[in-house]
Design goal:
This protein has 382 residues and is an alpha/beta fold. Helix content is 38%, strand content 24%. Helix 3 packs antiparallel against helix 4.
Length: 382
């Protein structure tokens, strides 16, 4: 029987972890690793965790925590939730004018995504099930995964470390220098062992003409996909031209928001890999619906994620629930905000990642070793 949860408390925590080597993308540099974790508790003491996207802008983490305290808490506390998907729709509607008034569509969508994930975690805990088993009793316990976040400039050493850890698939960041990056990708593709795959991510670096030129330099290379070759909001005709110019599949979706945007992308068919980010839009509710729609259209759902440990667990559980041939993205750059939750989930012999054996997302409390990285926290209750 479905269980209702009357929300009595909401907490949010911002963290920033310094890193020795910044994470470079084609559009900017991450000089530290931020994360925002949100915790909901009902009046019976049942709780759930979620994660809110905080990578950009650079000062965004603390802002998201304040947004939860000053805007979202008043819409969440005292509410009785039976179906998180219904409540996701309610929060999206209730914050629409606030987001329009402030022009802050992203922050509202991201905080709602984290709240939604926390509600699903709570629901799974109440049922004493992992989230994937709540969504799909036949969900697998291990998933194929790929090593992500590898800069093309350090790809040889990055691939070597990821390979040593047990990964058999790798994604390199490109979009810094078209010809140099293409040459480096071709070189790396030539070093792959049997059963390994190389993927590329331009992070929206190119216009359509540049993207087609880049792809033409890779056309005979064994590349699994090119992710976000052009801007997510580029005209559909540009995506069509890029897709038609190559046999290399295109991937994208982390910068789409809303069911209509994903439905349009799925119908257009220019993307073969659909990649919503559970912490940027949709949480479990929105991304589960998108994943099922992609699978129905014979496209592949591969969750995008490059954050902390709670979001990685949520992405793992959702991908397992959906099934299919999707790959789990695992950032391999040093980040205690991820590693403290999942020090090593990769199996060296199979290249697969382990889902949690605990209820919900598997996180009971934040690892105490993260306390030194905390920059802000709030707690609001009835």
């Amino acid at each position: 029987m479905p269980q209702n949860h009357r929300i009595a408390r909401i907490e949010a925590y911002a963290y920033r972890c310094p890193v020795e080597t910044p994470v470079d993308t084609s559009f900017g540099r991450m000089s530290d690793r931020p994360a925002v974790f949100v915790r909901l508790e009902d009046e019976d003491g049942c709780f759930g965790w979620g994660e809110v996207f905080a990578n950009w802008p650079a000062a965004g983490a603390e802002h998201r925590v304040n947004l939860i305290e000053r805007d979202l808490a008043q819409l969440v506390l005292g509410q009785t939730v039976e179906d998180p998907a219904d409540f996701f729709g309610h929060l999206s509607t209730a914050t629409r004018i606030r987001a329009l008034q402030s022009g802050e569509w992203g922050p509202f969508r991201q905080t709602i995504a984290g709240i939604d994930t926390a509600l699903w975690d709570m629901k799974a805990r109440a049922a004493d099930l992992s989230l994937r088993k709540l969504l799909n009793p036949e969900a697998a316990d291990r998933l194929p995964a790929y090593a992500s976040g590898i800069h093309i400039g350090s790809a040889p050493s990055g691939l070597a470390r990821a390979r040593e850890d047990g990964f058999k698939a790798f994604k390199v960041k490109v979009g810094f220098n078209l010809e140099h990056d293409a040459q480096a990708v071709r070189s790396m593709a030539g070093t792959l062992d049997k059963g390994e795959t190389l993927y590329t991510d331009a992070n929206q670096a190119f216009n359509a003409t540049q993207a087609m030129a880049f792809l033409s330099l890779l056309n005979d290379a064994p590349i699994g996909w090119l992710e976000e070759p052009i801007a997510a909001d580029a005209p559909s005709a540009h995506w069509k031209d890029v897709a038609a110019s190559t046999h290399i599949p295109l991937a994208g979706g982390e910068n789409f928001a809303g069911k209509t945007a994903f439905a349009d992308a799925i119908q257009a068919g220019h993307l073969k890999f659909i990649q919503p980010d559970i912490a940027k839009w949709g949480g479990i509710s929105g991304c589960f619906a998108v994943a099922r729609a992609a699978k129905t259209a014979d496209l592949t759902y591969c969750p995008h994620f490059l954050g902390g440990g709670i979001g990685l667990s949520a992405s793992t559980e959702l991908l397992a629930a959906v099934g299919g041939d999707g790959l789990l993205e695992v950032d391999v750059n040093p980040n205690p905000l991820r590693q403290a939750f999942a020090p090593s989930g990769i199996d060296r012999s199979t290249g697969t990642w382990a889902a949690t054996s605990k209820p919900g997302l598997g996180c009971d409390e934040l690892p105490p070793e993260l306390a030194r990285y905390k920059t802000h926290q709030i707690g609001v209750h009835l």
